[in-house]
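does this look right to u?? carboxymethyldethia coenzyme *A version
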Amino acid sequence: MNITHIEHIGIAVENLEEAKKYYQEILGLECYAEEEIPDQKVKTAFFKVGQTKIELLEPTSSDSPVAKFINKKGQGIHHIAFANPDTDEALKEVENKGIKLIDKKSRKGAENLNIGFLHPKFTFGVLTEFCS
Ligand code: CMX
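got this back:
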């Protein structure tokens, strides 16, 4: 395992435009990209904080994993994403160590990254993503 840094922190929000105002106007961060990811049923907005990004996630449908999360737990930190050189290798490695995966193989996420999720039941309640 060769995790290099926290690539991003995903934050579930009900309304992207409202949440963006807080990051822009109160914290003074710049939203450098917005993207819809139909596969994940979310709209995203990105802010850079050093090497790490904040990824705001608004669900685009009521069966989006993010909509389910908000209904159950409310708005807030949804996942943490660790950068590493090869997501497929990292997924295989943790699976061999007994961690249940959501994604057996990497798929394309925001910013064209190769992403894969680990199940929060096996990661002490934190939905964990690998990305490369
Ligand atoms: N963090 C911590 N725990 C979470 C969670 C999260 N983000 N999302 C769900 N859970 C927990 C639930 O609270 C629930 O716990 P209990 O069994 O104790 O009640 C359990 O996981 C099962 O959750 P559920 O609501 O019943 O929903 P599902 O089983 O349908 O799905 C999960 C759960 C994690 C497999 C699903 O949300 C998933 O596949 N997530 C990964 C994909 C994703 O989140 N994509 C959006 C991000 C987009 C991006 O960044 O690219």
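The CA atoms of residues 2 and 84 lie 6 Å apart. idk if thats expected tbh
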